[in-house]
Fold this protein.
Amino acid sequence: MKYLFFHLFINFTTMNFAQNLSSEQIVQSNLEAYNNRDLETFMSWFSDDIALYSFGEMKLLASGKPAIEKLYKELFEASPKLHSTILKRIVFENKVIDHESIVGRKGSSDVLEIVMIYEVKDGKIFKMTSIKK
């Protein structure tokens, strides 16, 4: 019973903490976990109904935490030198738009430039839209 109360307290405290962070702070924390390839922390910043879209045709690439986790688990495992650098960031209400330079993707030395649009609600990222060159 003590464990249950402790677990509920920790979840409530964490949820309240995340809800008090700005959209930019949430996305930045998510990026730091990405660069550390810390899957657990990375996933903690997503809502259960997180969706990843490709811009333009608005094609749904992945939907729901399990699908996103599978996608990034495979990426993190195949990319020991994965790192994203923010070239430019725009924050507009609950949206964070990052122009990113990514290196080390799946062992490649190529630099991938991408724009990611993150949308935040209730302290969690609920939608990501990628724009690739």
Summary: The longest strand covers residues 83-92.
